[in-house]
Structure formats: structure tokens, C-alpha cells
Amino acid sequence: MNQSVAKLSGVGPAVEKLLAKIGIRQIIDLLFYLPMRYEDRTRITSIGAAQVGQRVVIEGVIELADIVFRGRRALICNISDGTGVMALRFFYFSNAQKNNLRRGSRIRCFGEVRFGARHKEMIHPEYRVLKDNDSQVLEKALTPIYPVTEGLHQARLRQFIGRALALMRTTQLPDWVPAEVLTELGFPDIDQAVLMVHAPPAEISIDQLNGGTHPCQRRLAFDELLAHHLSLRLLRERLQNDPGPVLRGTGQLIERFYRHLPFELTTAQQRVVGEILHDMDSCRPMLRLLQGDVGSGKTVVAAVAALRAIECEAQVAVMAPTELLADQHLRSFEDWLTPLGITVAGLTSKMPAKIQREALQSIKAGVADVVIGTHALFQERVEFANLALAVVDEQHRFGVHQRLLLKAKGPAGLFPHQLVMTATPIPRTLAMSAYADLDCSVIDELPPGRKPVQTVVMSEQKREAVVARIAAACAKEQQAYWVCPLVGESEVLDCEAAEVTAANLQSELGRLSVGLIHGQMKPAQKERAMADFVAGKIDLLVATTVIEVGVDVPNASLMVIENAERMGLAQLHQLRGRIGRGERSSTCVLLYKPPIQGNARKRLEVIRGTTDGFVIAEEDLRLRGPGEVLGTRQTGRLQMRIAEVVRDSDLLPVVQRAAERIMRRHPSNIRPLIDRWIDAQGQYGGV
To answer: Which of 2, 20, 230, 536 makes the best surface tag, with the fewest CB within 10 Å?
Structure first.
């Protein structure tokens, strides 16, 4: 089974390349290349009974075959079976096809039934013209549909998978999940599960299969979740094999910090600080995820952790995903720590060369106690004198690979402690599966006095009234954000749209000061715009979603988001979190372009109905799925073949228990189980 697919009949060099494109290199890969859905081609449905939206097999006699020119040239064939008429519509056809589809011929088709002008219709169905007295046998099993690549057709791939299944019947697959676990869970063995998903008998419910809830599919989903969980556990073990610096301070520096703060930490913040300091007191490197809703006070908790490291004469790195957020952290840390005699330095790729050189020298010499920057902190030329703690803000934008690069930055033989912060709450199901390599702390309490933001949803047709509301609010010395619509994939286009919007609003609002900030501006321009907004020199700040994360202006109490229907829940929640940070009541206006329907409507209903980031995160996961929520294109996490974290969330506690048992009693099963489900690139423990 571990032989090259080239050993199979019909797989030459060209086909071998096509199969490699979809990750199939060995015969066993064919068995674990799983269908994305199923079709029922085992029975003929009468035309009269065929429902719009169904994919069915029909059979009948061609009553009419003609080329029509109604807007677009098409070959139309009307077929009848005595219960009704179905139109077959072909936009692309050859003369041979036209000649083959003659009036009076008997034809069998498979396709999706749609509404037509006069009759129900199928567009480009699969079909076969039946010969006289031809009683063609129908499929005996449900038909699996696989993800394919250009040049590799379903029928061909099914043929190769069929040959691999035939081999499996003579060579039993090793089952890496221990028998006692399978017995306890009532799962079928691996051979039975694999055979069923590729060739399900006709009597099995197609709805159950397409819903992914058949016991054989559940068995495979369990294996896949288990493989991912074990891979993350291996990563954790690997990261914690190296000793971390023991940071056991007197607590005096932290006490001085608390005395300088103009507020007291919440009970939740104090609890989380205790968890973090306990980790840093250990010789095992801390790997902790710090979750908290927008405005819950994660940054001040990170500052306390930094003080523990500094008290032990070590350095701290704070990494942010954007220049804007790095600048925000730099200001906060300077305000808090400079009065305590602590040196805070910034390092970003867009700094002038001379300032960068000076920063690098102070980091290397150990003069800089806290270094705050972007991805620039990962560069080889950045050398720390004694890095003991790395704080990574906005985990979704940093991958596992980048976190591993920190290892090289610590003192010889020691792995820095890591605190990973995210302002986008992670649903419990994802935290259990995608973050099994991290301990988790949650700040589940907002600072006292924070007033909830009122959210209203309005059609863009009421834009004039919204502009009037801004004028009235700014006349009372309030400030506002106007978040520009997403134009498309191009950031340049988004920024151009923001410039036009700012100019229009300036002319509408007359004497009010309208500022602008977007991603294409130079860092100095962005800093100046934000500084003017913070100082109250700007009444209305027009922005792209560059302000999504971390920007803190307490006097801003009004936000307008254009084209809100095009944004995700997490992004809307983050944007809304930029207001409601002061003493005034705040309002967020979501403008939409009518009509809106489906998920867009649901998103706006959810965001209007709650300000709880954890509730919003669960809804976001339900609507978009884990890949979009986590941004797996960047992080490489949770790219599943059959498991779906939302649907299979009930398996996650079982997976955790099974992983513990396998690691304790069957450690030799771990690597083959991971290799079966995750290719080398995707293995977290093999980064």
C-alpha cells in the first residue's frame, strides 16, 4: 500500500503528476483521499417527480432537438417519459453531439433540475444515448464526488481508488487507534470505514452521508482530529524539551507599577496574571494563549509579565501584526514603564536605517529592556542580549513557524517564555483542537464603567441622516470614525475609495476637521493622523480597516461602517471595539447596501444583538467555518479532509482522552497515525 501510485495500471508519468498535485503519491493516499459529497445514481426518477434543486437520473425519449438563438446560442433537447417534459440545454456542443441527440432517440441523463422557461431543465447534464433494447445497468452504490484538479476527471479518479480498494481487501490496513478505544466508542475498524466512504451501498441515507454523520465517516473524522491533536501535542513537547529561563522575582517592581496605574486590575486580570507568573517561575518554557474580548485589558497583563522578566535582568519582545498596533503598544509601554526607569525600544521594518541601527545596538547590548515591533523582530540581524519573554499579539496573524523562530533568539540553551494574545475570542471547540499546544487563559470580565456600545443597522439610503448625526455629535466635542467600504481585493483601490470618501465628507461637514488613515500611507503620516485624532485636532477620522486592531481613542464615541454586509463578524466586532472606551455612551452605525439576504443578514443581526465577543465568535464559527475564522491560509492550522470542527465538536473531549491514552500506552502508534492524515508540510511537530 505504500508503493508509488505509478505501480497501478493506467497511471503513467502524466497522470502521476496530476495525482501528485492533489497530494496523492502512494497507493495508500488514494484510500485517504475522501469524497466531498455523494450523488444517487442508483435509481431513475420520473420527470414528473423530479424536484427543482435535486440531482437525479432521468430517462426518456427526445421529442425535440434544435439550436436556438435566444441571447445565447444553445442546443435544446426536450425529452419526455410520459410523466412530464425535461429540457436539456447545452451551450457548448459539437456537430457530433448534435447529430447524436436526434429526435426519437432514448437517452439517460444525470444533472441538477432547474426552473426553465416552459419546462424543468438541466444545463449540461451527463448523458448517454441508449441503443435499441439497451437495458443499461444502473450504479449499484452511491457515487462519491471528489475534489479534482484540471485534467483529472471524476471517473478516472474513481477508477484508481477502486483499484486501491481491491488491494486493501487483500492487504489489511494497519489500525493505529487501539482496539480498546474503538470498542469503547463503538467505532468500526479502519478497513470497513474506508470501504464504506468510497463505495457506500445504495440503501444508506444520502442525506446522512452528505451531512457527514454516518458512523464510518465519524470514525475517520475522529482519526483525523486525533492526528491533528497529537501533532500539536508533539509540537508542545518539542518546544518544552528545551529548558526555559526561571524568572522568580521579588515582586517589588510589579508593586511599584500597580501603584502608578490610574486603575485597579479586574479580578479576571489578577487571576490571569497569577497563571502567567506561575508559568514563568518554572524551568519549562511557558506556552500560553491569553484570550480576552475587545477592551478587556490584555496589554496591561502583558506589561506585568514583562516586569517579572525585567526584574530578573532579562529582556522582553512584544510582536504586533501591524505598524499601527506596534506604535500603539510602544506608546502604552513607554507611558507605563518609563517612569519606573525601564528602557522601551521600537523596531519595525519601515523605520529609517539610522534609527534601526541604533535600536539593534541597544537590543544587542541589553540596554533595551522591552523591544516592541512587527515581523522585523524575527530577522536574523536582531540579536538579543538575554531574551526571556516573547509576547505575540494577535495570534491569528502569526503562524507556528514564526513562533518557532523565537527559539534562536533566546540565550544559549534556553527557550524564551511565550505569551500569545488574541483579541478575537476563540470558540471553545477551536481552542480545544487548533490550540492544543498552548495553555489557555481567559479574561472574561471588562473593566468597570465601560458602557456597552449601541449598534444600529441602517440602509445606505439614510446616509444623509447619519452625516447630520456626526455633525451634531462633533459639535458637542465628540469624535467619530468613518470606516470605508471594501472595494475589492486590492488595498490600493480601498485606499483610493477612502480618499474620495474623506473629500466628500469634508465638503459635507464644512468647518469640521476630517482626517484620513489607510494602509498605503507612510508610517510617519499614519502616526501624525492618529496623534492629531488623539489630541482632538481631528473630529472625524476616515479609515480603512487598518484601524481594526488595538487603536485606543477614549473620546471617540461614534462609528459608521459602510458596506457592513461585506465584512465578517469578527472584523465588525473588532472595529466596533474602537469606540466605547470613554465615559460617554457610544453608537456604532452599520450601513448596508440593500437588498441583503442569507449570511450577510444573519451577521448584521448577530452584531446588533450582542457585544459579547465569545457569543460572536461561536456564531462566526458556525457561519464561516474554522478555516476562515482561524485564517488557516496564514497559520496552516486545521486543514481537514473529513472532520468539521463545528459538526464534530462532540468528538473533541473524546479525542483528548484518546490522545492521553495513546501517548501513555501506545507511543509507537503516534507517528504513523499523524503521517496517515497530515502531510509533512502540515505537521506542527515537524516544523
So the answer is: 2
Question: Can you tell me whether residue 394 is helix, strand or coil?
Answer: coil
What are 196's three cell numbers?
464504506
Q: Classify residue 319 as exposed, middle or buried by CB count within 10 Å of its CB (0-12, 13-18, 19+).
A: buried
pLDDT average, residue stretch 68-75: 84
Same domain, 316 and 351: yes
Q: 98 and 67 in contact (C-beta within 8 Å)?
A: yes
Cell numbers for 246: 526561571
SS (H, E, C) 354-384: HHHHHHHHHHHHCCCCEEEECHHHHCCCCCC
443, 473, 498 — which closes off a domain? 443
147 and 126 in a common domain:
no
Can you give the CATH number for the domain in which 593 is found? Answer: 3.40.50.300
Q: So what's the pLDDT on residue 208? A: 94
Phi-psi region of 103 (alpha: psi -120 to 50; beta: other; left: phi over 0): beta
Domain membership flag for residue 152? yes
Helix (H) or strand (E) holding 492: helix 491-509
**Could you tell me if 34 and 74 lie in one domain?**
no
Q: Determine the Cα–Cα distance for residues 310 and 359; give it in Å rounded to an integer.
A: 18
CA angle 591, 595, 601 (to 5 degrees): 70
Q: Provide the domain limits for residue 181.
A: 5-39+143-211
In sequence order, the β-bridge partners of residue 371 are 317, 345
Q: How many domains does the chain have?
A: 4
Are residues 68 and 9 part of one domain? no
128 by DSSP, 3-state: which?
Answer: strand
Q: How many CB atoms lie within 10 A of CB 497?
A: 20
- The Cα diameter of the chain in Å comes to 95
Instruction: Tell me the C-alpha distance between 603 and 455, whole Å.
Output: 13
Higher pLDDT, 583 or 587: 587
In a shared domain, residues 198 and 291:
no
> Do both 99 and 149 map to the same domain?
no
Burial bucket for residue 427 (CB in 10 Å: 0-12, 13-18, 19+): buried
Q: Could you tell me the CATH number of the domain that includes residue 122?
A: 2.40.50.140
322 and 384 together in one domain: yes
* pLDDT tens per residue across span 289-328: 898 887 788 999 999 999 999 999 999 999 988 787 888 8
Burial class (CB within 10 angstroms; exposed 0-12, middle 13-18, buried 19+) of 660: exposed
Could you tell me if 291 and 441 are in contact, meaning their C-beta atoms sit under 8 angstroms apart? yes
| 97 occurs within a structural domain | yes
What's the order of all strands across the beta sheet hosting 126-130?
Answer: 120-123, 85-90, 72-80, 55-70, 106-112, 126-130
CA atoms of 311 and 243, how far apart (whole Å)? 20
pLDDT digits (tens, 9 = 90+) for 170-201: 888 999 999 999 999 999 999 999 999 999 99
Show the cell assigned to 389. 519573554
Domain presence at residue 496: yes
Same domain, 437 and 369: yes
482 bridge partner residues = 542, 560
What local confidence, expressed as pLDDT, does residue 410 receive? 82
Say if strands 72-80 and 85-90 run parallel, antiparallel, or are unpaired: antiparallel
Q: How far is CA 181 from the centre of its chain?
A: 31
Confidence (pLDDT) at 31: 95
The residue assigned the cell 440531482 is 55
Q: Is residue 88 part of a domain?
A: yes
Task: Name which of 313, 318, 315, 287 is nearest 302 in CA terms.
Answer: 318
pLDDT digits (tens, 9 = 90+) for 385-407: 999 999 988 655 555 566 667 66
Out of 562, 584, 610, a domain closes at 610
